[in-house]
Amino acid sequence: MKNYRKVAITFFGSLFLFMSACQEGPKKDEPRTSEEPQVEKISPPEGIISLEESKSLYDNYSKHRMDMIQQYEAERQPDGKFEAARFSSFTYEDIKQYMAYVEQEAKEANVEISSLRIYFANYPDKERFPDGKKVVHPRQNSMFIVPTMLVDGEEYGFYIGSDGKAKLIKDAVGAKSMGQKTDQGDKAYASFAPTLFQDDDKSLNLNHGTSGPPPFTDF
């Protein structure tokens, strides 16, 4: 009888230990069976320049452009106060949204974006842009961004037509006629042809950033 009792105690004791082991979670110090994927480190673009070169470029603009702009605007409006712009900026979130938007539109139009062309620009001496937005800094220099695509080995800015296809900007607005003199001696420029645009055409050009003299200059 004692032997049966010992066997029963040993059996139930072993069963209890087995069940406890099954319910016990993995130990904290156990090594992971799978490693987290490593994110590939991004190399700097070839166009990255040093702080010394950045300072040199900034100073060159100050020396060879700023005075001429200030003088021109002073002659244009002697009674008006004008301070030439030194930068144009867009928020980081706006740039991310813009990149995602142009990639989306290009993909739907079945074209590849070749580059982003940055055009120098100048705001009008008016209170509002043609789209109704306020001109915060009249006469101020600015820039706008145009995505390009390859056509016969050449890059051209494009927009999305009402048919959903990518179309060349130059075919819609026409090339400017350079070097034509007016009676006053100024150069005349051919105007854009907005009548070629349809209401549901999509421009992919980005502007309306923040332009002006830096409140706290970097250089």
Structural notes for this entry:
The structure is a single chain. With 219 residues, the protein is an alpha+beta fold. Among the domains are: 33 residues; 120 residues, no CATH class. Helices cover 32% and strands 18% of the residues. The strands form three sheets. Strands 2-3-4-5 form a four-stranded antiparallel β-sheet. A two-stranded antiparallel sheet has the order 1-8. β4 and β5 form a beta hairpin. The longest helix is centred in the first third of the chain and has 26 residues.
Notable traits:
219 residues; globular; 4-stranded antiparallel beta sheet; 8 strands; alpha+beta
Offer a quick outline of the entry.
This protein has helices at 2-23, 51-76, 92-108, 169-173; strands at 87-89, 115-122, 141-151, 154-160, 166-168, 180-181, 187-188, 210-212. The protein has 219 residues and is of the alpha+beta class.
Shape: globular
Query: What does the radius of gyration come to?
Result: 33 Å
**How many strands in all?**
8
Proportion of beta-strand residues: 15-25%
Tell me the helix content.
25-40%
Low-confidence stretches: 15-25, 177-184, 188-197
Distance between the termini: 97 Å
Mean pLDDT across the residues is 76
Instruction: Let me know the largest β-sheet.
Output: 4 strands, antiparallel
The total of helices stands at: 4
Order of helices and strands: HHEHEEEEHEEE
Cross-sheet strand order for the largest sheet:
2-3-4-5
By secondary-structure content and strand pairing, the structural class works out as alpha+beta
How are the elements arranged and paired?
Layout: H1 2-23, H2 51-76, E1 87-89, H3 92-108, E2 115-122, E3 141-151, E4 154-160, E5 166-168, H4 169-173, E6 180-181, E7 187-188, E8 210-212
Antiparallel strand pairs: 1-8, 2-3, 3-4, 4-5, 6-7
